[in-house]
Amino acid sequence: MTRREWGPLGALALIIAVTVAWWALALWPLPTEAPEWLYRTRNVCFGVAGNGLPDASGWMLLIAEPITMVAILAFLFGEGLRRGFRLLARARVGQTVLVGAILGVAVGLGAVAARVHAATSSTEEWFAVTADMLARLDDPAPSLGLLDQVGNRVTLEQFRGRPLLVGFAFAHCTTVCPRVVQDVQRARRRLGDGGIGALIVTLDPVRDTPSRLPGMAQQWNLDPGTLVASGPINDVERVLDEWGVPRERDPLTGDVVHPALVLVIDAEGVIRYRTPGGPDLLVDLVAKL
Question: What is the pTM of this model?
Answer without folding.
Answer: 0.65
